[in-house]
Amino acid sequence: MAIDFRSGKSRLGNPTGGLSGPAIKPITLKLVWEARRAAKIPVIGLGGIETVEDVLEYLAVGASAVQVGTASFTDPRASQRLAGTLTKVLLRAKVFTVNELRDKFIAENG
Predict the structure, then answer these.
(1) Which of 55, 64, 66, 75, CA to CA, is 20 to 30 A from 43?
(2) Residues near 84 by beta carbon (within 8 Å), at least 6 away in sequence
């Protein structure tokens, strides 16, 4: 819910709206992890992806791909920026494949 106190009107167009962005990341990370454990099908991670670290967290828990949404409102090139720095961050962390990233998470967390 978001209200303009001056006019008394909703800023969302409706009285209430849903959660998005960083507010839902802990929830959607858990859901990606659960979905991937339940079925060996591709899962797309989304919710609160603003940094390369966010992308890597979703990949580590089993996402096959990610979707950038809310971050694109403030930075229309967010997806391009994230894709451009992903390899650099992986190399600095000495992680060379997404499977290696997932294996590390599974070894630590089951």
Answers:
(1) 75
(2) none
